[in-house]
Design brief:
Largest sheet: 8 strands, parallel
Helix content: 25-40%
Structural class: alpha/beta
Oligomer: single chain
Number of helices: 16
Number of strands: 15
Strand order of the largest sheet: 1-11-10-9-8-4-3-2
Length: 484
């Protein structure tokens, strides 16, 4: 892709499996940038195979994985031709560690490869993948799998991804790479690393690998300027999110304050300085309540290439959210009663997290209180230095006594929700816990979700990717994708 051919619309890389390959493929086939979420793809592949892989799409992608023996091992481990029996729990995967086992790395490489392969299949449009910097442990194998599949863009937020451009450069060249890990309680000058060696995965020469564009997701000009000048490799542009964007938000700057509902208060210091970002001379897109032609026009007038749109795509027909949840959210949007709460405590990361009020989900206090605390997926665990100098793992969402026994502060556990399990339930892949309890969903979206009704035709109960793009760009769209 040429440097000057960046798209106008970037579809947000949302949640776990919300921005799955059918959504990204649909957006890309209409000429814009479809983005798959790279979070927990190993677990998602594992569970989809246990559910029988309807349509055979994952098996088709794994057949193209250029790593001998890997696909066969994963299928032997997890594929159930008839799918799980009703009420049967999913078999689990070991949590990813600082030094992943070969099995763990194979799941990560294969899952990221398959998701990108399927999103790119049957059309010539670009595909991106979105990662969270806070979720460090899977990053290197995940990036390698996506690059192996020919991903065109890598987007990353929820942190300061200084080291990611250089890691992408090394992986695209097939060179060994390491990533410094954020470890709490580390001694001064002490460093911990995650490593990945691409050549260990091939008997012969590596196949040619392309270097994807890297877009950093930022919320301030200060961070954008630091990344442009000091990152370990080339930064190709920015997605500039404001505080109305869904999912994780950057914490407010200055003295913490909350409104009457208990939400963090964002002020003038939290408004990105677009003039300074524009002065860097790199492409950028604005994000957060940008799903309208007037907002797109304003963004272009400020020098942006376009906008990133999340919530509007999250609830369209092609997204991965469970259809029953979509229906409830759209009905509340039509009625004008949809509530989006910026929860300062929900996420174990400590970042504010936007939660949509949906009946029967952990947005309701009784549902949250009725779920036993546990951490069995571990993507948002924090790393800490144990007294013997090794790495330990703790999550503020795990049982309070267990967290405290690992040196965690009790205050960190207050109000924490299991984002990992909640997001898996939102896409219809809820674990059945001991005793038969199905994990409740946790729905996240931006403030703009309150206005989803504008995409619905009179009497309609759903809308498509093409409807969103027609609203944004004022033109009709015909897909260029062919049937796989």
């Amino acid at each position: 892709m040429l440097e000057n051919s960046h798209p106008t619309i970037i579809q947000g890389g949302m949640g776990v499996g919300v921005s799955h390959w059918p959504l990204a493929r649909a957006v890309s086939a209409c000429g814009q940038l479809g983005v798959v979420s790279g979070t927990a793809l190993d677990l998602l592949l594992h569970r989809k195979l246990q559910d029988g892989d309807p349509g055979g799409h994952l098996r088709r992608a794994l057949d193209r994985l250029p790593l001998p023996g890997v696909a066969a091992r994963l299928l032997a481990n997890s594929f159930l031709p008839e799918g799980r029996k009703p009420g049967r729990p999913y078999k689990g995967l070991p949590m990813v560690a600082a030094h992943p086992t070969r099995e763990s790395a194979e799941w990560l490489v294969a899952a990221n490869f398959a998701e990108v392969f399927l999103a790119k299949e049957g059309h010539a449009g670009p595909i991106g993948i979105n990662y969270l910097h806070k979720v460090q442990l899977p990053t290197l194998p995940s990036l390698f799998g996506a690059i192996l599949a020919g991903v065109d863009y890598v987007l990353m937020g929820a942190g300061i991804p200084m080291d990611i451009p250089g890691a992408i450069d090394s992986l695209a060249r097939g060179e060994p790479v390491r990533l410094q890990l954020e470890v709490e309680d580390a001694l001064p000058g002490e460093m911990f690393w995650s490593e990945f060696v691409p050549r260990e995965w091939f008997d012969g020469p590596l196949p040619p690998l392309g270097r994807p564009f890297f877009l950093a997701i930022v919320s301030s000009a200060v961070l954008a300027m630091a990344l442009a000048r000091k990152a370990s490799g080339r930064v190709d542009g920015f997605v500039v999110e404001n505080a109305s964007a869904g999912g994780h938000n950057a914490p407010p700057r200055g003295t913490p304050a909350r409104n009457e509902r208990g939400e963090p208060v964002f002020g003038p210091r939290d408004v990105p300085d677009i003039a300074k970002i524009r002065s860097l001379g790199l492409p950028f897109w604005l994000a957060g309540s940008e799903a309208g032609p007037e907002r797109l026009a304003e963004a272009r007038a400020q020098g942006a290439n376009g906008v990133q749109v999340g919530s509007a795509f999250a609830f369209c027909e092609e997204s991965g959210i469970d259809p029953s949840i979509k229906a409830r959210v759209l009905a509340e949007s039509v009625a004008g009663t949809l509530d989006v709460f910026t929860d300062p405590l929900a996420s174990p990361t400590g970042f504010p997290f936007k939660v949509v009020g949906v009946a029967g989900t952990v947005s309701e206090s009784e549902v949250y209180q009725g779920r036993p605390r546990l951490c069995d997926l571990g993507y948002l665990r924090r790393l800490y230095r144990k007294p013997d100098g090794t790495i330990g793992y703790r999550c503020p969402g795990e049982p309070v006594n267990l967290y405290a026994s690992k040196g965690g502060a009790l205050a960190d556990t207050v109000g924490r929700k299991c984002v990992c399990n909640g997001l898996m339930a939102t896409i219809g892949r809820a674990q059945i816990q001991p005793g038969g309890l199905a994990e409740p969903a946790l729905v996240t979206a931006g403030q703009d979700a309150r206005r989803l009704a504008r995409f619905l035709d009179p009497g309609a109960h759903g809308y498509t990717v093409a409807d969103v793009l027609r609203h944004l760009l004022g033109q009709s769209f015909a897909t260029t994708a062919t049937t796989p």
